[in-house]
Amino acid sequence: MESEKEHIYRRQSLARFSPAEKFRIILADLAFTILIRLIGLTLRFESEGEENLNLSESSGPVIYAVWHNRIFGGIYYLRNRRIAVMTSESLDG
Predict the structure, then answer these.
(1) Cα 79 to chain center, whole Å?
(2) 53: how many CB neighbours lie within 10 A of its CB?
(3) CA 76, CA 50: separation in Å to the nearest integer?
(4) What is the pLDDT of residues 24-67, one digit of tens each?
(5) Distance of CA 16 to CAs 1, 12, 22, 58, 86, Å?
C-alpha cells in the first residue's frame, strides 16, 4: 500500500478533465517547469536563519508559505527539499 506521503509526490490523474483541458494542463506543466529552471539559473539568494529552517525540517513536516509574486523563486529555492505545492484546481488562473 502506498504511503500517504508518497502519494503527494506522484502526478495525479487528469481523467476528469476534457481533452482540451488536459492539453492545457500538460502544456502549462512543461512551460512552467522550463520557465522555473531558466529563471532559477539567473537568481541569487541571500538567506538568513537557514539553520532554523533545517532544524524545523528535522523535527517533522513543515509548511512553507510563498507569496504569489515570489512563487517561481520560492519553488526553485526549495527544489531539493521534496516539497509539494498546493494550488487551486481552478483553471481560471
Answers:
(1) 8
(2) 14
(3) 16
(4) 999 998 998 898 889 889 989 887 877 777 776 777 777 777 77
(5) 24, 11, 9, 37, 18
C-alpha cell, 19? 481533452
**Domain edges within the chain:** 4-77
2-28: pLDDT as tens digits:
566 666 667 778 899 999 999 999 999
Q: Are 45 and 77 in contact (CB under 8 A)?
A: yes
Q: What distance, in Å, lies between the first and last C-alpha atoms of the chain?
A: 35
- Total residues found in the chain within this entry: 93
Q: How far is CA 4 from CA 25, 47, 51, 79, 83, in A?
A: 24, 31, 28, 20, 14
Distance CA 9, CA 82 (A): 8
